[in-house]
Design brief:
Elements: E1 5-9, E2 18-24, E3 29-35, E4 39-43, E5 50-58, E6 61-69
Antiparallel strand pairs: 1-4, 2-3, 2-5, 5-6
């Protein structure tokens, strides 16, 4: 569970650039972050408590993780 800020780390080979997209549990996109490097932190203080989905994408590679905000 998270509240305030979430830190995301891209493990393995560092991509030249990658994207983080945050969605509500119903699929509404809330935020898009384009990044260069292996990590980023984003603010979740304005998110209501509940379940969210975080999609990390670089080229053809993708990972989707659940995020619970308290």
């Amino acid at each position: 569970p998270a509240s305030g800020r979430v830190h995301v780390l891209w493990e393995g080979h560092s991509p030249p650039s990658w994207e983080v997209r945050i969605y509500t549990s119903t699929g509404q996109q809330l935020k898009v972050l384009s990044r260069v490097g292996t990590e980023t932190t984003f603010d979740t203080s304005q998110f209501s408590p509940g379940l969210y989905w975080v999609r990390l994408t670089s080229g053809t590679k993708q990972s989707i993780k659940a995020l619970i905000i308290e």
